[in-house]
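Hi V.,

Quick status before I head out on leave. The structure for the redesign project is tokenized and pasted below; the design run finished overnight.
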């Protein structure tokens, strides 16, 4: 009865481990417990077991061998699961590292773009677009100032020319007046001299 219960337990274990594999089975009767899948090893035990009423009588050696094979397969699968977990953990670490590198690369890219579009002017960070607008505004203001001062200069130049012309005319009139005055003075002196000579 214990053997039957053990066989039932092993059958339930077989359902859970149906996909476990072992080496290729050999052609001899004993060889089928030394290789092949767990499924084929159960089939082999079922086929070589004797019947007793509605039960199957299984040899203890076959049962021990099957148990050993199942335990070996479970150990192998556990090791594979551990290896896979280690691999997954390593891949997660690699993905985390790559995400960190990617975020750093994004930050560096944003910083490079900001540095390309900005520069320092008198210790103040200025965007190139703002700087360009300020420079064009300054050029426009200087152009307006130049035009204004040029107009003022032309007006002043015309006034100066007119003042110089007026001054030349006044100077000419003054010279003419002085000349006339000198002539009159001479004339008066002559007349005075003549008058004094006539009295004598």
């Amino acid at each position: 009865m214990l053997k039957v219960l053990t066989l039932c337990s092993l059958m339930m274990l077989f359902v859970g481990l149906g996909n476990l594999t072992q080496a290729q089975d050999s052609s001899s009767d004993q060889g089928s417990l030394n290789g092949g899948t767990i499924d084929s090893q159960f089939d082999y035990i079922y086929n070589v077991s004797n019947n007793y009423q509605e039960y199957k009588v299984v040899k203890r050696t076959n049962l021990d061998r099957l148990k050993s094979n199942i335990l070996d397969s479970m150990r192998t699968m556990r090791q594979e699961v551990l290896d896979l977990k280690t691999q997954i953990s390593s891949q997660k670490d690699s993905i985390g590292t790559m995400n960190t590198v990617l975020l750093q690369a994004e930050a560096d890219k944003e910083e490079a773009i900001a540095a390309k579009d900005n520069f320092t002017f008198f210790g103040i960070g200025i965007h190139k677009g703002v700087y360009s607008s300020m420079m064009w505004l300054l050029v426009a203001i200087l152009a307006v100032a130049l035009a204004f001062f040029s107009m003022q200069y032309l007006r002043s130049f015309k006034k100066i020319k007119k003042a110089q012309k007026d001054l030349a005319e006044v100077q000419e009139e003054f010279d003419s007046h002085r000349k006339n005055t000198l002539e009159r003075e001479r004339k008066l002196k002559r007349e005075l001299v003549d008058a004094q000579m006539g009295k004598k």
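Above is the designed sequence. Helices lie at 2-16, 38-48, 60-117, 128-199.

G. will cover questions while I'm gone.

Best,
W.
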